[in-house]
Amino acid sequence: MKKQFLIFLFSFFIQIAFAQNNQLWKGYFSYNEVNDLTESPTRITGATQKSLFSKNLATNELKTVTTINGLSGQDITAVYYSPTFNKTIIGHANGLILILTESTGNILIVPGIRDQAGLTPNRKRINHFFEHDGKIYISCDFGVVQYNLATLGFGDTYLLGTAGQEVKAYQSTVLNNFIYVATAENGIRRADLSNPNLNDFNQWQTFDNGVWTGIVTHNNQIVGISANRVARHTGAAFATITSLMQPGVDIRSYQNNLIVTTENHVYTYNENLSQTAHIVSTSIPEMTAAFNCATVIDGTIYIGTKENGIVSTEVLNTATFRVIKPDGPSKNNIFAIQTTPTGKLWAVYGGYNVFYVPDVSSNGISKFSENGWLNIPYSDVLQAHSLSRITINPSNENQVYVSSFHSGLLKIENDVVVTKYDHTTQNGPESLLYTPDPNYKSVRINGAGFDRSGNLWFNNSRVKNAIKVLNASGSWQSYSIDGFATGYLEQDYGRMAIDKNGTKWFVSSLNGVIGFNENATAKFRLAASQEDAGNPLIKNAIAVAVDNRNQLWIGTMQGLRVLPSVDRFMGEGDLETNPIIIIEDGLPQELLYEQFITDIVVDGANNKWIGTADSGVFLVSSNGQETIHRFTRDNSPLPSNSINDIDVNAVTGEVFFATTAGLVSFQGTSTKGNDDLSQVYIYPNPVRPEFLGTVKISGLINDANIKITDIEGNLVYETTSEGGTIEWDTKAFGKYRVASGVYMVFISSKDGSETKVKKVMIIR
């Protein structure tokens, strides 16, 4: 029976210019893990999980393409450069295709496979692209799809099962006008491209019944990978070329070179299938290399690795290796970040899961500065696992402490890990007691912070003395949670915030948000709402933050709560927390109702940046009544809607988002208020006709009054600053754009003791 399956009668697409509307965003991606390569005589391009990077082989220029430039943030699984059309085609795990026009930098979004009904949703992954006569044959987990690069439209879909069912296609190739496809379940399937009915599965034959994971055309013969075997087809049967030491993971033919890759080996062959080079990962000095793919361009081998970007060497001289990759952090899945007053940023990679189970993988620490990225490897962090939080000494930003949720507390001096405080430190951190194995040690340090006296406080999970302090003098002190919390030997602790009274607020796995003040009569108190009594909401607290009005904001797995004043801890009343009620569509609603909140950060204007587990980022006003921004993967360069951590540079207003798929930042306008008006500046100035953004006035003090008038003294705008920066949309009270001219900016402090006058020129 003839079966037809057309994927689309037309192709829906959107064109996005690189960097369009993304001028306020920056990307800080890792380029270490290269999943696929594509080549041309003048360029090598590597695809990572979320980005591309390429090297011009003539100029050595490195170029990156990320979500900042218009990539989707979906997992990239295949990439191919078409020299005929000068386009790079990018395939994703969910079936989405992007087409990058290299000459213009425009990206075409082709959602046809991703959005096609009738296909099994989890079988749309794109595995490989093959070009023939202007058409791209797209190997997917369900079959093969044809796409015309000239018309930018889809052709037929080929379901290659012997009964027309979905079958995973690894790779395709063409020889003598026959298309060959290596499939997961039905061997190599073959059909005649001159047949107009190839969407009928009956027109396909089984070329070979073996298990083939890769197939290419090399020197007018079919060559494939079957487990540990590389074989060519003689016209009658497959003959083994070589037996591999490991299963093959990639095969390709380029410039008369056949390249076969396994996890730890790369083999190259000439057009006569004579071996020309053999690279073993252990032969590459100063790195532990594992391979994903490889190619050869003009006698140079380029290897896509799992942890070291692209490594290159010469076919005729494999003793020298070079690393090709842009600067970046070690990994994209960053667990926690922290900025410094001078604009540096620290990052760690985890961590623990939602159940506080430590991640004991071997990760290091990263630091970004004006000199680029410094990546401190695991070998230099004193064998500490599960690095979860960064705490910077406010009196000395070259002194950094890193919490480990398994190995204690690390101290870093001038970018070098110098000390690890753990169960062997006298009077210091303690290990939990694991009854089945009393020799097992796990020192779980997490939330930490400095008080005004320079003492470092932190929580220590699953021990009686849950609160620790490393005094500025260097001595240690502990405080027992026994008598306040039950089941403390099974209780884990999370983030910590210290308020103006020296009260330490931190989240716990069993008791919700706990406040601790060593100088209070009741040293421990619980922040909870009566309506949440017995409810898991407040117990599932994840994040705490003290805002500029001394309110405690609490993020939980099921929503948001606020303690109206941290001063209540020192009083006798209950620490009653409340939801924030907003009016939406005329009805009262709870702000962020049932959202899984992962972090809360307060900016210079007392607005709150709130990260979520699967809904992106919210910026809400100081009282929560207005949502100023909502960023997701669909409307912004966020590479993932799953936010691990957020931090704000208080001086510049740059907001950093650590997601499960990469680090990006947004140039916010809320900065910390200055001490005086001596540093006021306006940008851009002048405002030129092509500029469509807002004018920023920075260097302000809190509660400054700003009046803007035309040259004749007519008032066009007035506001009061919250923090160090305000924005003006160059409109007269939001109604119409002001005309060209010079405008006066009058600034005064709340009591009138300080004033400043600036000018801004607007050119229409």
TrEMBL record:
Keywords: Signal
InterPro entries for this protein: PorZ_N, Secre_tail, WD40/YVTN_repeat-like_dom_sf
Domain spans labelled PorZ N-terminal beta-propeller: 48-205
Family annotation (Gene3D superfamilies): YVTN repeat-like/Quinoprotein amine dehydrogenase
Annotated Secretion system C-terminal sorting domain residues: 682-762
Signal peptide: 1-19
Protein name: T9SS type A sorting domain-containing protein
Classification of source organism: Bacteria, Pseudomonadati, Bacteroidota, Flavobacteriia, Flavobacteriales
